[in-house]
Specification:
By secondary structure, the protein is an alpha+beta fold. The protein has helices spanning 2-12, 15-19, 23-33, 35-56, 112-178, 184-218, 245-255, 257-279, 319-385, 391-425, and strands at residues 61-70, 76-78, 87-89, 95-108, 283-294, 302-311.
C-alpha cells in the first residue's frame, strides 16, 4: 500500500518539475559540444606540439644516409702529368657505394633556439588563455539564451492570462448587453480587445518556439528538442564586490583572459624577432659520425670522424633583419591592442554595473506596480458591473495589468542577465 501511495505522489508531480534543466547543466553540455571551444582546444594542442618541437631543437640530431652512384666511365688517377705513364682505378669499378651516419649537436646558435623556445612557450600560453576566454564567452551566450527562453515563457504566460481575463470580461459584457444594461458597442470593443490579445498570444508562442530553438542550437541539440528549464538561476553575486565599481574594474584587469592572450602574443612576437636576429650570427655545431666507403684500393672501408663546423650567413639581402623587424611590429601591435582592450573591458564593467543597479531598482518599483494594477483591475471591474464605470476603463485596466506584469518580468530577467554580464566582465563567470 505504501508503494502505491508513493508511486501515486510521484506521478502527480508535473513532469517539467522532474526533468527541468538548470543553467549549470546547460553550461556543462554546451562546453562539451561547442565546436568553437573544441577548435580553441585544438589550437592549444597544436601550440603545445610546437613548443615541444622548439625545445627539441637544442637536442642532438642523428642522420643516416646511403647511396650508390654510377659513373659513365670508371674514375681513375692519371699520373701522366707527373711524368709517370700510369692510370690507376679510383674505386675499382664504375660505381661508388657510400653510407654514413652522423650526430650533430648545436653548440652556439646566436640565441635563435632559446628565443624560439620562448616564443613557443608564449604562444602556448596565449592559446590556453584563449580557451579560457572562449569558455567564458560561451557561458554568457548560453546564459542569455537560457534567460531568453524563461522570458519568452513568461511573456506567453502573461498573454494567456490576458486572454483569460478578457474572455471572462467579454462574457460579462455579453450578459449585460443581452440584458440591456450596456450598449452593443461595449460588447464589440471587448470582442476586439480579446481578438487582439489572442493575436499577441500567438506571437508570444512563436517567440517561445524560436527561443527554444536558439537555446538548443547553443547546446548542440536538435532545434526541435523539448526544452524545460529551471527558473532558479545560479547566483554569482556572492563572487562579486557589487558595491565598488573600482574593485570590479581592478578584478577585470586581473582576471580576464583576453588581455593575457595579447600579452602572451606580444611576448611571442618579441621572442621570434630575437630568434630571427640570432640566425644572422655564427652557428656553431659539433658533428661526429661514421662513414662506410666500399673500395678496392684504400687501406680500409670505414672511418669514424669528429669535427666542429661554423656556418655564418654573412649576407642575405636583409631577409633576416626584415623578418625580425616584422615580428617586432607584430609585438607592438599586440601591445597596442591590449591597451585598447583594457579600455573596452573597463567600459563593459561600468555598463554592466550600471545596468545591474538600474534593473534591480526597476524590479523593486515594478513589483509594487503589479500589486497595484491587480487591485486596480478588480476595482474597475466591480464598478463596471455595478454600472458605475465604463468598458474602456476595464480594458485600460487590463492592459495596464498586463503591462505591469511584463515590466516586472523584464526587469527581473534583465537583472539576472546583467549580473551574468558583470560576472563575465570581471572574468568570474
Amino acid at each position: 500500500m505504501f508503494r502505491v501511495v508513493v508511486l501515486t505522489l510521484l506521478l502527480a508531480v508535473p513532469l517539467k518539475a522532474v526533468f527541468a534543466e538548470n543553467l549549470e547543466a546547460a553550461w556543462r553540455e554546451a562546453l562539451g559540444n561547442d565546436l568553437a571551444i573544441q577548435a580553441a582546444e585544438s589550437r592549444a594542442a597544436a601550440a603545445q606540439a610546437e613548443l615541444a618541437a622548439a625545445q627539441a631543437a637544442r637536442l642532438p640530431t642523428v642522420m643516416a644516409s646511403a647511396g650508390v652512384t654510377r659513373f659513365d666511365e670508371e674514375p681513375a688517377f692519371d699520373f701522366g702529368g707527373a711524368g709517370v705513364p700510369a692510370v690507376l682505378p679510383l674505386f675499382g669499378g664504375e660505381s661508388l657505394q657510400i653510407a654514413d651516419a652522423r650526430v650533430t649537436v648545436p653548440l652556439y646558435t646566436g640565441g635563435s633556439v632559446s628565443y624560439g623556445i620562448d616564443a613557443a612557450e608564449s604562444g602556448f600560453s596565449a592559446s590556453q588563455y584563449q580557451v579560457g576566454a572562449s569558455r567564458q564567452a560561451l557561458k554568457l551566450a548560453v546564459a542569455e539564451h537560457y534567460i531568453n527562453v524563461l522570458r519568452a515563457k513568461r511573456i506567453l504566460m502573461v498573454a494567456d492570462s490576458n486572454v483569460k481575463s478578457l474572455g471572462a470580461h467579454l462574457r460579462d459584457v455579453e450578459d449585460m448587453w443581452k440584458s440591456g444594461s450596456v450598449a452593443r458597442n461595449d460588447y464589440l470593443a471587448a470582442a476586439v480587445s480579446l481578438a487582439d490579445s489572442e493575436q499577441r498570444r500567438l506571437l508570444a508562442r512563436n517567440r517561445l518556439d524560436l527561443a527554444n530553438a536558439a537555446y538548443n542550437r547553443a547546446l548542440g541539440r536538435e532545434l526541435g528538442a523539448i526544452v524545460e528549464l529551471d527558473e532558479n538561476l545560479p547566483d554569482v553575486g556572492t563572487e562579486l564586490e557589487l558595491g565598488s565599481l573600482a574593485a570590479l574594474t581592478q578584478a577585470a584587469v586581473r582576471n580576464r583572459d583576453e588581455p593575457r592572450v595579447l600579452d602572451a602574443l606580444a611576448d611571442a612576437h618579441r621572442a621570434q624577432a630575437k630568434s630571427e636576429r640570432g640566425k644572422a650570427r655564427p652557428q656553431l655545431a659539433l658533428t661526429g659520425g661514421y662513414v662506410s666507403l666500399k673500395n678496392d684500393f684504400l687501406n680500409r672501408d670505414d672511418f669514424w670522424m669528429v669535427g666542429v663546423g661554423v656556418q655564418w650567413r654573412i649576407f642575405d639581402a636583409g631577409q633576416t633583419r626584415k623578418k625580425a623587424s616584422a615580428m617586432s611590429f607584430r609585438s607592438q601591435a599586440a601591445a597596442q591592442e591590449r591597451d585598447n582592450l583594457l579600455s573596452r573591458i573597463e567600459l563593459q564593467v561600468r555598463q554592466s554595473w550600471l545596468r545591474l543597479n538600474e534593473t534591480r531598482e526597476r524590479k523593486r518599483l515594478t513589483e509594487k506596480a503589479v500589486e497595484q494594477a491587480e487591485e486596480n483591475l478588480r476595482v474597475v471591474r466591480d464598478r463596471y458591473r455595478n454600472g458605475e464605470g465604463t468598458n474602456t476603463e476595464v480594458l485600460d485596466a487590463e492592459e495596464l495589468r498586463s503591462l505591469s506584469r511584463s515590466n516586472f518580468d523584464n526587469a527581473d530577467f534583465d537583472a539576472n542577465l546583467a549580473l551574468y554580464e558583470l560576472a563575465r566582465g570581471v572574468g568570474r563567470l
